C-alpha cells in the first residue's frame, strides 16, 4: 500500500482538509448549480425527442444514422450525468421532488432502489475491498493479482466484451450478490423478489424501446427497433468503458477486508484516493462521462454535484502531492489500454501489481472550474 508512510496525525489532517473542502463547496451551492442540472435535463430531453423524431424516416440511412447517434447521446446523458448523479443525492439539496434521489427512475433495466443499495452503499462504502465490493471484477473478472485465479478466468476478455455490450443487465444483477447465491448464503425469498423487480423493469424498458416507439414509426418498425437496440448497446459500451477506466487501470489499489477494522475517516478518504483513477479530457468529454472522468473526486464526495468536480480536482491533487500520495490519471486511450491489458494478463495464473503509473498532466492543465455550458 502506497500510504504506509502516513502517520495517524497525517490521516487526521487529511480528513480535516477534505471535510473542509466539502463544507466549502456545500455552502457555495446555489443558483448556478441548479441552472446547470436543469439545463442538462432540458438538453437531454431535446436530444431524445429529436433523435426519436428523425427515426420516423429511419428507412433512409442518413436519418437512421443521425437519429441513432442523437438517441445514443441522449441515453448517455440520462444514465450518466443525470440518472447516476441524481440517484447519488447530488441534487437533493434543491428539494425538487422531480430531481431527487428518492423519486428518480432512470432509463436502464436496473431498478433504481436496487442500484442505490449495491452502488451507493456497498460500492462507495467498501470501495475496492476484496470480498466486500462486488464491483471488483463484477463477479466474473479477475482484475488484480490479489484475486484467486480459476480456469474460468481464461476466456474473461470475451466475458468483458459481452459485459460491455449488455452492461445494464450486468448492473441489474449486481444487487443479487452472486457470490452469496453461489455460497448458499442468500435469502431465497429476497432474491426472488429482486428478480421479479428486475423482470418488471426489463419489461417496461423493452416495451418502450422495442415495441412502443418502433410501432409509432409505422412502416419503419424494424429500422427503428434496430436503432433503439444500437443506441442501448452503444450507451452500455460507453458506460462500461468509463466506469472500468475509473476503477481498474494502472496501479489502482485493492484492499483486504482486515483493513476495514477500526478504519478512521481519514483512512477511508485515502482508500478512495488509492482505489480510483481519473481520465483527462475536454469539458464536453467530462459532461458525456457524467463527470465520472473525475472518479477520484466522485469517490471522495459522491453526493456533491458533479459539475463541481473539475473545480476541486486541482486541490485534491495538491493534497496528494503534499502527502506523497499517487493521483492516478491519464488519457482515455491510456486508461483503456491499461484496463484491458490487466483483463488479458490476469486471465492467466500469477501476475504482479504494477509498480509505477503515469503522473498525468500537471494540476494547472486540469479543466477550468466553470460549469459545462449546456444551453
UniProtKB/TrEMBL annotation:
CDD domains found in the cross-reference section: Delta6-FADS-like (cd03506)
Biased composition (Pro residues): 360-375
Pfam family name, one: FA_desaturase
Single Gene Ontology MF annotation: oxidoreductase activity, acting on paired donors, with oxidation of a pair of donors resulting in the reduction of molecular oxygen to two molecules of water
GO biological process, one term: lipid biosynthetic process
Coiled-coil regions listed in the entry: none
Start and end residues of each Fatty acid desaturase domain: 63-329
GO cellular component, one term: membrane
Domain of life where this protein originates: Bacteria
Spans annotated as Disordered: 352-375
InterPro entries registered for this protein in UniProt: FA_desaturase_dom, Fatty_acid_desaturase
PANTHER family: DELTA(5) FATTY ACID DESATURASE C-RELATED, FATTY ACID DESATURASE 2
The protein's name: Acyl-CoA desaturase
Source lineage: Bacteria, Bacillati, Actinomycetota, Actinomycetes, Streptosporangiales
Amino acid at each position: 500500500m502506497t500510504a504506509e508512510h502516513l502517520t495517524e496525525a497525517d490521516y487526521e489532517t487529511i480528513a480535516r482538509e477534505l471535510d473542509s473542502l466539502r463544507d466549502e463547496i456545500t455552502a457555495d451551492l446555489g443558483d448556478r448549480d441548479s441552472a446547470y442540472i436543469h439545463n442538462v435535463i432540458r438538453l437531454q430531453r431535446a436530444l431524445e425527442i429529436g433523435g426519436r423524431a428523425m427515426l420516423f424516416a429511419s428507412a433512409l440511412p442518413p436519418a437512421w444514422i443521425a437519429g441513432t447517434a442523437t438517441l445514443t447521446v441522449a441515453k448517455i446523458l440520462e444514465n450518466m450525468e443525470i440518472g447516476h448523479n441524481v440517484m447519488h443525492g447530488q441534487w437533493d439539496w434543491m428539494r425538487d421532488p422531480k430531481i431527487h434521489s428518492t423519486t428518480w427512475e432512470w432509463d436502464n433495466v436496473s431498478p433504481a432502489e436496487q442500484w442505490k443499495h449495491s452502488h451507493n452503499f456497498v460500492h462507495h462504502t467498501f470501495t475496492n475491498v476484496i470480498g466486500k465490493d462486488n464491483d471488483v471484477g463484477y463477479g466474473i473478472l479477475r482484475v488484480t493479482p490479489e484475486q484467486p485465479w480459476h480456469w474460468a478466468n481464461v476466456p474473461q476478455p470475451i466475458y468483458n466484451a459481452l459485459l460491455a455490450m449488455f452492461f445494464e443487465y450486468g448492473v441489474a444483477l449486481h444487487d443479487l450478490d452472486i457470490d452469496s447465491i453461489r455460497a448458499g448464503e442468500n435469502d431465497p425469498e429476497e432474491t426472488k423478489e429482486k428478480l421479479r423487480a428486475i423482470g418488471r423493469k426489463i419489461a417496461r424498458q423493452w416495451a418502450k424501446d422495442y415495441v412502443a416507439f418502433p410501432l409509432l414509426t409505422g412502416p419503419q418498425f424494424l429500422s427503428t427497433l434496430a436503432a433503439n437496440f444500437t443506441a442501448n448497446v452503444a450507451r452500455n459500451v460507453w458506460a462500461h468503458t468509463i466506469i472500468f477506466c475509473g476503477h481498474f487501470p494502472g496501479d489502482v489499489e485493492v484492499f483486504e477486508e482486515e483493513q476495514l477494522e477500526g478504519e478512521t475517516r481519514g483512512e477511508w478518504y485515502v482508500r478512495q484516493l488509492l482505489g480510483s483513477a481519473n481520465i483527462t479530457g475536454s469539458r464536453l468529454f467530462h459532461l458525456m462521462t457524467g463527470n465520472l472522468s473525475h472518479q477520484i473526486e466522485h469517490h471522495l464526495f459522491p453526493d456533491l454535484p458533479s459539475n463541481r468536480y473539475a473545480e476541486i480536482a486541482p486541490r485534491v491533487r495538491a493534497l496528494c502531492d503534499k502527502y506523497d500520495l499517487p493521483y492516478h490519471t491519464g488519457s482515455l486511450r491510456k486508461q483503456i489500454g491499461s484496463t484491458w491489458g490487466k483483463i488479458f494478463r490476469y486471465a492467466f495464473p500469477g501476475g504482479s501489481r504494477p509498480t509505477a503509473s503515469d503522473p498525468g498532466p500537471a494540476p494547472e492543465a486540469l479543466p477550468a472550474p466553470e460549469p459545462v455550458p449546456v444551453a
